Amino acid sequence: MKAISIKNPFATQIMRGTKNIEYRTWDTKHRGDLLICSSANPQVPGMMSGCALCVVELVDTQYDSANDVYEWHLSNVRKIKAFPVKGKLNFFEVDDALIHFADEEHRNSQTSAPKAADTPAAAPVFPQMPGMPKTIDNVTLRVKDDLEETITRKSKLRIAAACFSIYAYEELKKSLSGIDELKFIFTSPTFTTDKAEKSKREFYIPRLNREQSLYGTEFEVRLRNELTQRAIARECAEWIRQKATFKSNTTDQVVPGFMNVVTDQDQYTYMPFNEFTTVGLGCERGNYAYNFTQRLSYPMSKSYIDLFEQLWNDKQHFQDVTDQVIENITAVYNENSPEFIYFVTLYNIFNEFLDDISEDTLPNEATGFKNSKIWSMLFNFQRDAALAIISKLEKFNGCILADSVGLGKTFTALAVIKYYESRNKSVLVLCPKKLANNWNTYRDNYTNNPLVEDRFNYDVLFHTDLGRTHGTSNGIDLSRLRWDNYDLVVIDESHNFRNGGKLDSESDEKDNRYTTLMKQVIRKGVKTKVLMLSATPVNTRFNDLKNQLQLAYEGDSSQIDSKLKTTRSIDEIFRNAQKAFNTWSKWEPCDRTTDNLLKMLDFDFFEVLDSVTIARSRKHIEKYYDTSSIGKFPERLAPISHRPHLTDLKDAISYNEIFEQLTKLNLDIYRPSHYILPSRMEKYAALYGDKQGKIGFNQVGREMGIRRLMAINLMKRMESSVYSFNLTLCRIKELIDTTIDSIDDFEASVGAKINLTDITDADEYDLDDQNSDDFAVFGKKVQIDLADMDRISWRAELVKDQEILELLTLMVADITPAHDSKLQELLTVLREKVTHPINPGNRKVIIFTAFADTAMYLYEHVSSVMQDEFGLHTAVVTGSVDGRTTARLKKADMNTILTCFSPISKDKALLNMGNLPDIDILIATDCISEGQNLQDCDYLINYDIHWNPVRIIQRFGRIDRIGSKNSVIQLVNFWPDITLDEYINLKSRVETRMKIVDMTATGDDNILSDEEKHDLEYRKAQLKRLQEEVVDIEEMSTGISIMDLGLNEFRMDLLEYIKQHPEVEHTPMGLHAVAPASVECPPGVIFVLKNRTQSVNVDNRNRLHPFYMVYISEDGEVICDYLQPKKLLDTMRFVCKGKDKPIEVLYHRFNEETNDGRSMEDISELLSEAINSIIDVKEESDIDSLFSPGGTSALMSAVSGLEDFELICFLVLKDE
User: What is the pTM of this model?
Assistant: First the structure.
């Protein structure tokens, strides 16, 4: 007979008559009888593999063009006596003599026995003799089948077994409904009151497993996944109340498992019978190689009947647990609140984290830091961050807080500082100089300190102080300071350290700030924890992040590798992440999406981020936290761009003409060492060179840095204001004039020396330049004797620059304030804003500029107009000196001015400053672009466009803050009167020119590195974007963002919950709740699953493995897949948190739709779809077979990995 081999479960389904169409990729002309055989693999519990099963009639075949498969239509199924067959591809022939139909076998069995050689048996058949034990092999005969024959009405059941499953009850429900009673003994302690200590894990875990077997064992996953357990549990609990009593062994002594059935006719014992589950009944195979059970009848069963009675009546060692069993089963069908399901999810995913936790890594509340003033002022999301930071500092020694602009990182850090100070730890805050006032305010014993009662005692020093060995800074004598004696260092704006430094290099390179911090503060002396604050910890490479994280583990990766749950070292993780980023960054812009980058990064990278960073965006806070008590972010209006001409004078100079002249400057005034005669070089090498005696890079490099900085600075100041530009031109020209005069006077004054005091006025530079490493070494006096120089060459170069500067000063001299088009346009904008405010009654404006000179220039001309025309006060703050204002203030320091400008956000009323006048117009440099809350204001003007786009976002962050009283806010940008492309290209040309001149000194033939070119392109793209919209800082990073990746807040949620609800660990699997859907969270189901084996085809990118979450819509579309666990947990938190009662209207509707849990086919099908989305079933035919008639029978498909997942719980989202 023609035969064909088909995989289980499909072959068995054909034999049972539940499948009458077989899908094939090929057609056949054969019609008539066909022998159906099951393949040897896969082996499915309860189904025969590698056997001939039945004969069918192949009636017809039809081509399905939509799926490109052939449908084979089968009918007339005839069962045969199964026998082993070795399958082949396509059709093969089987000897007819081997095929014996089941009805024929039954007829012949009375008269003749077939020869073993003719018909190999599927399993041995044991002869039965009266009074002898009956052997049940659970293959040809199952315990369930035998019990259904044995149990009669009014029978009494006595079971001693390790566990009881509601699914075993379901299998025997018909027989059990008529019994008189069930007495059940748990053979090991289960549900008993004297529970073992949790620390005895080797005992505790098996016990927990036994108790949870009530809702199905690990081998009943398929049944659990059918989602009918609620209906089954309800019926089972009702039956137990009427007919069953449970007791448990309370001792450590082992009681073997057996079952007694007492009927009117006989008394039977089944043994061994270890578990009342579907495996024990023979319905599932479990992990037994074989599963034999003997059935003894009277008198052989008498000793077991007596034994059971003896155990049952032993009140000392056996305890009644019926109520506990009913209570636990009832939990399966009780209505649950959405919040409960959220915490069940967290418990299952993160319970190992609870085991790892020690009191050492958790904030010690006994310190009372939660009673502090700072704690009372924190918003809920800041408290979450503070607790998580303390935990990370204790465990990993370091943490980066990278919350977005406007989320109050300073206050979060102050709460952490308070915690450590309350434990008598010494704290150092390292910040940029411009933020000194900010940090000093909170520790000073002054009336304007809102946290004065917390008595903060930390030291504040500046990034630029690192490496200084003398002088004082912020009231601290640096010559006597013990840098190595701080327990905690808080680094504000830590991205300034992102470039790192050579920590263990053999070279004698001078230590930069980073290496000084590492060697003098962190490695030396007491063990130092490091908290880093930055909204932009990553610029364009992952090494930025690694360099900052290195501070936490002292540059020694072995210190952190042992603490991280990663498979590779941190160095390798970052190498791989950078490789992935480099590949990604070369893709076409349409493919260069953040999602694609995330898919390329591996699990270990996210694990590192999760362990040592906290990063939330404003969108995250708005979506996942209850901000009703805080208020919302204001709506951002589209940015307004102004491009005024340079001047309204006719035939006057333009931007382009000025920039053209700038590109011709050599600025050799800043590199005199280049003109030292070769024969005299040795003299200066000893004075100013490095330890190898080369004047080389130490001095030459410093000079190159000055030249480049000055060239770029001229461009920046030109773009800022004509006034600032002219000041700088005059200063450089004066320096050149003086130097040329010195050279000319040289013959008359032999021995004249040139002083190389390069930078005389730091305020001439923007704050980014002032904070650079190069800037720190400027201002050092280097003297060179003119006799040792090639004076003629140097003078010739100086004269060229002198002529260009002369021309430039003449060109801009005519542009007075009255003819300064940019200034006049600013005044027009201010008048419009004051007369037509965008929020009722709000006339406040902040004007930002990069330069103090421009700020003072604007103040001179804006303040008089505002006061004369509108009676409004104006103030200016530049950070270098006290501010100025038209308002009558006793002291015009920065804090007083900012408080008068933004009285609500700065708590003016609390500071006894209520009688001071309001300031409405604030002109400022970037000294207040970070760390200030000025949200009373709703209008921000960038008078010059900062070259770093992130700075523009940071400036806007002063008014774009959560809790703002303004409904809308406006950003206004002033751009140069040239295209952005021209502007960026000019910068490139200036940099390139400086580099070409430098090549002779350094031998470096690389004019602009790829990184610099990439940086220019990046800035151009972002500046273009800023002309159209205000973007969040995390969106400025061209793909690299560490926002929204950490899972720590969920662990903290769980930790808080478990203190009040330790019973969550006993929660049954498969529970659900019904929660309201919304626009962000459409109707559907969120499934939480656990992968039970490693065999399923999943990617190793799932951070929650072995847990998988899938959010699927009602029509089977995946809304959020398992690779986005953070998003899914956030969604669950958003939907569930705070909803601690079941939502009656929703669960009533759900119960009606599902017939109280009996008709779960729709949800079960969605579960099947969810699992398929994980395992990615590839063959169309498999999918067709999955959804063959029978609803949830699709879940029987082990070949597709469906049984490799068990359902932990699920959340149904329904429209209200």
Answer: 0.61
